Amino acid sequence: MNNEKTSQSVKPRIKQKNMRLLTILFLIFSGIQFSNGQNTVSPYSIFGPGELQNKGFGRSQAMGGTGIALRSGSSLNNVNPASYTGIDSLRIITEFGVQGKLYNLGTSGKSQTGYTGNFNYLALGFRYNRWLAGSLGVVPFSSVGYSVEKENYIEGLNAKFTSTYVGSGGISQFYFSNAVKLGKHLSLGLTTSYLFGPLVQDENIGATSVSPQLLIVRQDFLRSLYFDYGMQYSFSVKKTEITLGGIFSNRQSLKSKHILNVYNESLSLIQGEAYETDYLTVPFTWGLGLGIKNRERYEVLFDYGFQKWSDVSYPNQFDEFKDAHRFSLGGEFRPWEFRAINKSYKNWVYRVGLNYQTSYLSFGNSAVTDKSFSLGAGVPLPGRISKFDWSIRMGENGTTTNRLIREKYVIFQLGFSLNEVAFLKRKFD
Fold first, then answer.
1. pTM of the entire predicted model
2. Which of 30, 47, 256, 343 is the most buried (most CB within 10 A)?
């Protein structure tokens, strides 16, 4: 009789847990639809695959985007796939976040101000066993959003026409990562990603005395695999834990379907073609990181990243790409020991970060750089193991030198790390 009652009481719990897991998986695949939203209004996104989005979830973004040497724990870290071996074996972690951006574009006395907002990322992390862990999710890879006007000469004639280029879309990344722990100190990770999404450019050509008005629509629909790798080596010196990290991905050509359509002033199709191509290329990339952690009191992180864009060229790209460098410094600290009786702010984890990166774009002697400062906090939810993270990042991208455009921005991010205890074996008498 006791056995019958026990089995009846366990079944609903099992079904409830399965339903929660199915709901999480549904949200991950549903999130694919939201991640294609436009995350940028920068005119520099007209070049290459668009504006590449930095990796990192809520915790990492508040620390300047650092994460190469950051271990996953109650939060996930997608900057380095080797980090997932740090996930507790009894937890399933769900991460999701949203982002809003205030911006001001300025050049030669002119300026434009606006706001964008979007669902940002969605991920799930878990342990298979004591030495193997994994994560899957969907995150932005690049974003396109610009409106640029340019005057051109008609070939063979001393006559001008005006082209207005409007770009939209972006590349999304659905990833599946696995990490293995070798011995006590070393972890290795591999991320296999499927890149997808549209890159769209509308070119409106104004009518002249010798040419009609035209609309040229160029579209690339990405569907390509992408691979990147990571390692972390952790050891302790007295009460201090030190982590060394590295990430790497080789140069990869992305497969896409390219569609080119030309319309007249009445928007009737006068020419169209479609073909498979792999001209969109992502360069050889590597990075190194150092992390220093003193239990739960503080953690300091430093990252350096490199992308070899000088080996990459695109059709109709007149300026050579330059190698890109990225320096990030960040940290988090807990001024007060966690206590249930503390005032709420005393149980927060406070974060700060600096980021400086050079773009793969350079116009003459004017390099395009991005400088930012970030701050934020991790706020525990009831039960302590789950939390939400908020951050504010203030920065400047580009320059007004040589009639270029400078973007000043403030980015607000809100992320959630939801921890669910799982895989417990219940014993009944």
1. 0.84
2. 256
